[in-house]
Every structure is written in C-alpha cells, then in structure tokens.
Amino acid sequence: MRKYRIIASEGQTELVREILRGLSAGDAIDDGVADYAIVESGYEAPGTGISIVFHKDGVQSLIRILNDLAGKNGKPDVLIGRKHETYEPVRPDQILFFRADGNTLFAQTEKQCFEMKHKLFEIENMFPGGCFIRVNKSYIVNILKVREIIPWFGGRLLLKISGNDEHIEVSRTYVRDFREYLGM
User: Fold this and answer.
1) Which of 37, 74, 113, 143 is paired with 45 by a 20 to 30 Å CA distance?
2) Residue 175 is inside which H or E element, if any?
3) Pairwise CA distance, residues 148 & 167, whole Å
4) Residue 82 lies in a domain
5) How far, CA to CA in Å, does 95 sit from each of 61, 98, 113?
C-alpha cells in the first residue's frame, strides 16, 4: 500500500483525491508521513522523500505518472475535462464521443461537454482496440453509446448516439475499419 500526501489548493486537492480513488483502493492519503508527496506548482515540497510537482494545466501528465506508479500502464481510469474555469474528472465510460473543433478537443457526456487538453490522435492511441473508435476526421465515438447505425448515401454510415440528439457520420475513409471492428 502506497501513502500519498497532497500539498495543493483546495480545488486541486479534491481533484487529486478523486484521481487517486480511481487508481487503487489499497492506497491511502495521509497528511503525515507518506511515500509520495503530490505538490501543486507554487506550493513548497517536503524536504525529504519523493515529491511529484504538477501544474494545474498538467493534470493529465500527473494521471499518467500515478497510473505508472499504480502499475496501470494501460487505459486511463479518468480523464480531466475543463468546464468554464474549473477542471473535473471524467470517467471514459461516461463519454459519448470526442469531437475536434479546430485545435480544441471536446468530450461529450450525456449531461455536459468538456474541453480536453489532448489531441484526437492521442485519444485514439489511449484506447486502442477498446470501445472508442475513430469514425471521421473530427470524431471518435464510444461504440457502447451508439443507439443506431443507419446506412447512408455513398457507402457512408450515420450513427445515432444514446443520450444525445447528435447524428455522427462515419465517413467513407473510416467505414471499412468501422465495419471490421463491429464484424459487419
């Protein structure tokens, strides 16, 4: 069992607590002696032991480091989304789809849309062979959230997403891979 000490602002402390809860049930958060100190940039790190210093914009990197420490080098249990001026943990199973709009990536859940720090290709690489699949140059969908697949003009497909009114087109470039993925 690893012990973590969090030295951060109140909002970042809650965020890091949520991340740690998602990583391992056996680990503990302790204000005293700990194996690792997780320190927000601008706060003083302890003089002894191992400290991981993070900036509030680098929370996704912190998650990767904590995943490595917990022995979870695979898919992340949580992503960090930005809503207005706050950051929130978002479980991948809550996400209906990812949408790129210019240089900005959004993750859509049933209730809200979060801005993500990643690029679309990074999300694609995070979840290879999982339930997320690229369907056109701007979208990756959670196949478990697809309500209906409709044959469309020119060999394309149209996806209706559960919990959302959005219709997403599987472009001709991605139709073959999409059909193979589903065994269609």
Assistant:
1) 74
2) helix 172-182
3) 10
4) no
5) 20, 8, 9
Burial 71-83 (b: 16+ CB within 10 A, else e): ebeeebbbbbbbe
Provide the number of structural domains found in the chain. 2
CA distance 13 to 77: 18
What six digits make up the tokens of 127?
């979840």
User: How far apart are the C-alpha atoms of 184 and 180, rounded to whole Å?
Assistant: 6
Could you tell me if 165 and 115 lie in one domain? yes
* H or E segment to which residue 137 belongs: none
Q: Is residue 86 one of the residues assigned to a domain?
A: no
The domain in which residue 112 lies consists of 96-182
Q: 48 and 103, same structural domain?
A: no
For 96: left if phi > 0, alpha if psi spans -120 to 50, otherwise beta; the answer is: alpha
Q: How far apart are CA 155 and CA 92, in angstroms?
A: 30
